Amino acid sequence: MATSSSKSLFGVLAEFESPAHLLQAAEKVRDKGFKHWDTHSPFPIHGMDKAMGLKDSKLGWIVLCTGTLGVAGTHLLQWWSAVYAYPMVISGKPLNSYPAFIPVTFEGGILLSAFGAIFGMLAINKLPRLYHALFTSQQFKRATDDAFFISIESKDPQFNLEDVQVLLSSLGGKNIEVIHEAHA
Amino acid sequence: MSSTAYTEDPAKRLPLVEGGKSFHDVTEIVCKPLEQPLVKTPSWWLIGFMGALTLLTMLLGMVGYLLWEGIGVWGNNTPVAWGWDIVNFVWWIGIGHAGTLISAILFLFRQKWRTGINRFAEAMTVFAVMCAFLYPGIHIGRIWVSYYMFPIPNQMAMWPNFRSPLLWDFAAVSTYATVSALFWYIGLVPDLATIRDRATNKIRATLYGIFALGWRGANRHWQNYERAYLILAGLATPLVLSVHSIVSFDFATANLPGWHTTIFPPYFVAGAVFSGFALVSTLMILAREIFGFKQLVTINHLENMSKIMLLTGTLVGYAYAMEFFIAWYSGSEYERFAFINRAAGPFGWAYWIMISCNVISPQFFWFRNLRRNIWVIFIITIFINIGMWFERFVIIVTLHADFLPSSWGYYRPSIVDICTYLGTFGLFFTLFLLFLRFLPQIAISEVKGVMPQANPHHHGDSHGH
Q: What is the pTM (predicted TM-score) of this model?
């Protein structure tokens, strides 16, 4: 797997002792100006978004769009089918008896918002993705158990294999590992 | 029962995870039961699973018989046009509500104790909603035209009547089923990744790996994941309130004494939460005994749930009293008769079972040593489940004495009604046992997140707060 071809280099992985150490190290990596890097932990760590200098998640805007679509779509469907497609007078109510359409409109809004939240989240995260170079690392299996990692990718403009290894080591990183893609 | 000192100062609250566990210990405790090889499946599980499968087979037989013969095989007939099918539908859907309440509402209120029980409760929600959803699927009588429920263009140019509460109900329940299943699954993803990474053989790694979607604990993912979770909790909260409100509209929009009341939506929602918490507690007490989760699901969790049952049970009791008051205050002789007939008529026995189980039994939870006693909680939750079934039974069958005395009758379920209801337990427990065997019953990543060492400021460094 680990060939010396520069094409197959993914980046560098380093383990940190605790959430506190990971947070402090992340702040330093952020301040160095790296762009293509990430922290990995078995649970979300409070304050890590700020420590990594991440912008606010865009997900809310996606949900706003899909939710609005759900509300408008289900309401239009009910109005159109009750007034034009299949007009029926029910208990003397007007054809456009919109208060009676509110429950279904509400449910339609919730359903499409939920789809927006879940599928939007997966899309932003570029998941599902069953292969990732980090999965070639044995120690990385502990990222979902009790270990805390920083990975810096080789595609970062500031990436230099030796410098990154020295940096991570100076921040308290242990088990520093150079990660290659499984295929060139 | 633990005798640890209790204090109201939030900083000194009892730990959510007891016994000084490490992150790895939590992984081990939760993953151990589901990583046993198939040949070492415990015998209690096999026996339970066979029993559940037997009941499930009976359910399939009963549904097949119903579809072949028609709704006449059930006991409902005028004047009680809705029988056990609606009772069981409302009961199951109400059971499901606790899962959403625990996963969504308690999440929004930052009640961190929910992390020990939310996965379990959400699984219960999904399976209970499946049992509930079976009934509208089969009670329509002409199954081959069930597509009438969907707004699908068809050769008759017909469209559903969106002014009907039955269609609202269909929209609400199908949305609820979809959203709660997605919410549950998305919560499982990081834990499925944990199991994938612990897998010792290729098949496990592949199967769990596919469903883990390639999760790698990246903070850039966690950021959007947490936002999605927050949004879903925010959506599920009004959803769960709307679902049982809409279920109650099935009754409340009918011009029938005893049904046509505005108290129904809040009263149904409180009752749903009440019954759901009862069933979560029943199942959780059994599971923590069997799997040894006592340090993750502590007596404090059960005590908190008991308090919610006390609150919602008392709300339900208030609703029962208020229904009587309004029936008297309305001055309508039909309303008055409907309620007097409920309590003192031929179905009075059911009414008093309902009152004893739902209003009287939770009052024991006023006493701290009773609500911290496993046996007391277990017995009371069983009573609550029985009582809440009878609540729906009372509401539905007391129509047996309608406006015309010549059409009065007495409702009796048929054997098919009874076997179908028992069969839904087969469906529920088949799914539940599969969940217990193959999926993490406790939200591993969420429990780790509320442990003291998960706080990056835990080691007393210079960051404030």
A: 0.90
Indicate the domain borders of chain B. 16-142+161-453
Question: In angstroms, rounded to a whole number, what is the distance separating the alpha carbons of residues A45 and A22?
Answer: 9
Average pLDDT, chain B: 89
Q: Nearest Cβ partner of B24 from A26, A140, A145?
A: A145
Residue A6, pLDDT > 70, answer no
Nearest to A47 among B23, B236, B456 (CB): B456
B154 close to A (CB below 8 A): no
Are B27 and A145 within 8 A, CB to CB? yes
> Taking chain B, what is the end-to-end CA distance rounded to the nearest angstrom?
34
- Does domain B16-142+161-453 match CATH 3.40.50.2300? no
Cβ contacts of B311 within 8 Å, gap of 6 or more: none
Per-residue pLDDT tens digits for A81-114: 999 999 999 888 899 999 999 999 999 999 999 9
Q: How many degrees, rounded to 5, is the angle at CA B99 between CA B186 and CA A101?
A: 85
pLDDT at B458: 63
Token pair listed for B10: 């939030």
Q: What are the sequence ranges of the domains in chain A?
A: 17-45, 59-124
Q: What is the ipTM of this complex?
A: 0.93
How far B177 CA sits from the closest chain A CA (Å)?
10
- Which residue in chain B has the smallest CA separation from A107? B172
Report the distance separating Cα A38 and Cα A53, nearest Å. 11
Residues A136-167: pLDDT tens digits? 999 999 999 999 999 999 999 999 999 999 99
**DSSP string covering B446-463, please?**
HHHHTSGGGSTTTT--S-
